[in-house]
Amino acid sequence: MIRPLTSHRSLLRRILKDDEGMTLVEFAFVGPVLILMIMGVFDVAHTQYTSSMVSGAMQKAARDLTLENAGSQQEAIDENVRAQVRAVVPPGAKIEFEKLSHFDFADIGEPEEVLGGNGDQVCDAGERYVDDNDNGQWDSNRGKGGIGGARDAVLYTAIVTYPRMFPMFSLAGLPKDVTVKASSVLRNQPFDEQDRNATIRDC
Question: What's the pLDDT band for 160 if we cut at 50, 70, 90?
Answer without folding.
Answer: very high
